[in-house]
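Example protein was shown:

_____
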Amino acid sequence: MANAISKTAYYTLACRAEDARKPRPLCNDTYAARFMDDEARRIWSNFQSFDRPNASNAARHQIIDALVQEELDRAPDARVVVLGAGFDTRAYRLRGGRWLEVDEPAILTLKDAKLPVTEAKNPLERLPIDFGTESLARKLEPYQDPRRTHVIIEGVLMYLSTAQRRDMLTVLQQVFPHHAVYCDLMRESFQREYSADLHAVLASMGASFQDMTDTPESLFLEAGYTSASATSVPQRALELAGKRVPAFIVRRFMQPVRDGYRIWKFERR
């Protein structure tokens, strides 16, 4: 792939492909298997033993699925932008939306070959960008829209510096003045206490977390967003798996786990 962070797209892809094979899948992304080539299997071999983080990856995907689908049920023609789309297949699975996938040229070329846009059941465009050299604002400018837009940023923000995150939000506010953001945010203490082993493998592939903090949501709040919801990924993973007692324990007695890794929905009005 074009850069080290793109390797994480293979990891999250493999989590969803493995999930879809289970008798009780959490997100059931049946399209993920299309991309499981030799490179994907090679990278997955480094992560197969991380049962809980792998389940959390599938659960976080399902949480965002549900949040976005709820919005699309109300407004089926809404624009949905997936930044750092990786192997996202929501345009093929969800009902409604005018979809725009934004990512590096190499990954989108691979997606075009294995899952063409013509197979999507909703309108779908793919927008290649070299994040290191090209302007996100200039790339998105043709799509500027005052109507309410939905922006998915999954598995991306923890790899960006605070300055890069702030710049991204500035661009979104300029191009889509009325939008909702769906993203995963991890506390630094959660990463240190519960995700250090996984992060070590990611870091060995060149994809290290940056500028972690215990209040990652503050960046959005300071930028003028309001919080619409915050869903615990570990708790939801247990609930989706039918593990009611462990889910209850996490909810009532394990606040650092419950709140350490969440899917946030932010509104910018």
